[in-house]
Amino acid sequence: MLEELDAPLAPLTTLRLGGPARRLVTATTDAEVVDVVRTADEAGEPLLVIGGGSNLVIGDGGFDGTVLRVATRGFALDGTRLELAAGEVWAEAVARTVDAGLAGVEFLAGIPGSAGATPVQNVGAYGQEVAETITEVVAYDRLLKETVTLAGPDCSFSYRHSRFKADPDRYVVLRVRFGLADAGGQSSPVKYAEVARTLGVEAGERVDLRTAHETVLRLRAGKGMVLDPADHDTWSAGSFFTNPILADRQWGAFMDRLGDLRAPAYPAGEGFTKTSAAWLIDNAGFKKGHGSGPATLSTKHTLALTNRGAATTEDLLALAREVRDGVRAVFGVELVNEPVMVGVSL
Predict the structure, then answer these.
(1) DSSP assignment of 326-343, as one string?
(2) Bridge partners of 43?
(3) Cα 128 to Cα 188: distance, rounded to the nearest angstrom
(4) I want to staple 67 with a disulfide (CB 3.0 to 4.6 A). Which of 21, 49, 278, 294 is the partner?
């Protein structure tokens, strides 16, 4: 376990933004993680838990408390059952499941961050979510002051949401268990239209597992969504806004504003429709690369807000507010940030 005082946090985030931590502790075992959390809680110390820092916006003032960096390691495969320590690098873990010939998370290739963050956000992309394969989450429960194991159905997964996100100060994820599938070297059924087009197949078909993985990596890289220190388009938190889910009444009001435009529409449960945040941003007049300051929209994808190298968190938030307010003015739809905000808000 490593402890540092007045430690920079910006290098620990993919946005490379944010002020220092009064105290930064890096834990490499589950026991160390639990010990740091318990000690902070007993002392009434503010605590921030981070993993890969890929879904995090930290204020320029930093964090006046203890920041726990979870750096645990562990990849255990037993047949089709996979257990990951919370600190495992997610993209590397996905690649290892593909190497093992197992399907279930291959369309989640290249997503930055740690394994422990995946159930919190119910990480998903290209028609796949971790909720489909997570069987159990082992976490330290700060309310009960004990380690608990939650079955997948008890995690209350929904679109980019979970019980862990709903109650962020209660659980610290230690391990995540998955039930994958041996499909004879084939992928899970292709669900996402862009992936199907790229692969030249129909939705619902399976393809070679490695081909699926490599195709998603290429698609993500083309949108600046695969980390590359030399490419400022990847100095982001990925998709900054979630895709809005509108109730029928809201959808009707939205349709009335569209005129001749046709917005993407996806079923989101009875009485609800999901549309595309990227489409809204683009059609509200915010094109790729929008912005003249040190924070701009990505030149590859309108849904990513990026640090061009000299931005502050306030620069990024000013851009986020401009985009959010512009979409609201044009379409009457409120965009909601996907990254976790620390010491700041929109």
Answers:
(1) HHHHHH-----B-SEEES
(2) none
(3) 9
(4) 21
Which two tokens mark 262?
A: 């046709």
From first CA to last CA, the distance across the chain in angstroms is 35
Compute how many other C-beta atoms are within 10 angstroms of the C-beta atom of residue 44: 8
**Positions marked catalytic:** 160, 239, 338
Q: 27-41 burial by CB neighbour count: b if 16+ within 10 A, else e? A: bbbbebbbbbbeebe
Cα–chain center distance at 300: 18
In 79-208, alpha helices (H): 90-99, 118-121, 163-166, 193-199
DSSP string, 293-305: SSEEE-SS-TT-E
Q: What does the alpha-carbon distance between residue 80 and residue 184 come to, in Å, rounded to a whole number?
A: 12
Q: DSSP state, 235?
A: S
Nearest Cα to 107, choosing from 212, 225, 180? 212
Contact at 8 Å (CB) between 280 and 297? no
Domains located in the chain, CATH noted: 2-70 (3.30.43.10), 75-222 (3.30.465.10), 232-342 (3.90.78.10)
- Each of the 346 residues of the chain gets a pLDDT tens digit; together they read 999 999 999 999 999 999 999 999 999 999 999 999 999 999 999 999 999 999 999 999 999 999 999 999 999 999 999 999 999 999 999 999 999 999 999 999 999 999 999 999 999 999 999 999 999 999 999 999 999 999 999 999 999 999 999 999 999 999 999 999 999 999 999 999 999 999 999 999 999 999 999 999 999 999 999 999 999 999 999 999 999 999 999 999 999 999 899 999 999 999 999 999 999 999 999 999 999 999 999 999 999 999 999 999 999 999 999 999 999 999 999 999 999 999 999 9
Count, residues in the chain: 346
d(CA 306, CA 257): 29
Residue type, 18: G
